[in-house]
Write a structure and sequence with these properties.
250 residues; alpha/beta; Rossmann fold; 5-stranded parallel beta sheet; two-stranded antiparallel ribbon; 40% helix; globular
Length: 250
């Protein structure tokens, strides 16, 4: 397909801009990879998920099929895909994205997650869902923050997967947050579960297989409550895709 004049101008403009103002790494400010906004060194410094629970991706000292909590009670979601551990320097990207309103940090996280998903799908480790479902924010929380980081992340993941010839639509309004809750950080596991009870509702009927999208998973209670709502409505498989998995609070 031939490009129109406007597309040609945009392409030339971008080339000139990159020549005069090469991208700087979001983490160390050194020259970045043009497609990622992170330099090769900082990407290498990201801690890849290694030993973890096969159900909830809880980081473990050595690989086990299930962690102790999942052995006691299986979560309602079926699996967690988390390519990275929530540690430096990835924590800098999350902070820049969620609290400093730097969209380029979120775009970098979306590309990192999409690339990891594509590798896992091609190897047979992961199956593509019928749609991506971002974890919702309460409307007042979204107004205060200005955006829902999970929704932006889902859009970026879907865009990059399309570029890799893997098409998965985003169901951005399927899950809704109907009750304001306290922020989860700082709460105990029991308090986190109580905090989320009755917080979500479902709009429409979910497909058979969905992937919940969020930036970081900590206790897993938010994902578990979303999975409960989805499965009550007939969804059979609920995966959770996150850029990073943190250790659960004690």
């Amino acid at each position: 397909m031939s490009w129109g004049f406007g597309q040609w101008i945009q392409s030339k403009s971008r080339s000139v801009r990159l020549a005069w103002f090469p991208p700087a790494c979001l983490l160390c400010r050194q020259p970045a990879q043009q497609h990622l906004d992170i330099c090769t060194g900082c990407q290498t410094d990201l801690t890849a998920m290694d030993a973890c629970c096969q159900r909830c991706a809880e980081p473990l000292a050595q690989s086990h099929s299930l962690c102790g909590r999942c052995q006691q009670q299986l979560p309602l979601f079926d699996s967690v895909f988390a390519p990275y551990l929530y540690a430096q320097p990835l924590t800098q990207l999350v902070t820049a994205f969620k609290f400093k309103r730097q969209p380029s940090a979120g775009q970098a996280m979306g590309l990192l997650l999409a690339e990891a998903v594509a590798i896992a799908v091609e190897s047979g480790e992961l199956s593509l869902p019928d749609c991506l479902v971002p974890v919702p924010l309460h409307p007042w929380r979204q107004i205060k923050r200005g955006f829902n980081q999970s929704a932006l992340l889902a859009d970026d993941v879907a865009k990059h997967l399309r570029q890799m010839e893997m098409t998965v639509p985003v169901a951005g309004s399927m899950l809704q947050r109907i009750r304001r809750t306290r922020p989860q950080p700082g709460l105990s596991l029991v308090e986190r579960r109580r905090n989320l009870k009755g917080a979500f509702s479902l709009k429409g009927n979910p497909p058979r297989h969905v992937a919940l999208i969020d930036d970081v998973m900590t206790s897993g209670n938010t994902a578990n409550e979303c999975a409960r709502i989805l499965k009550q409505a007939g969804c059979e498989v609920v995966q959770v895709w996150v850029a990073a998995r943190a250790e659960r609070p004690k």
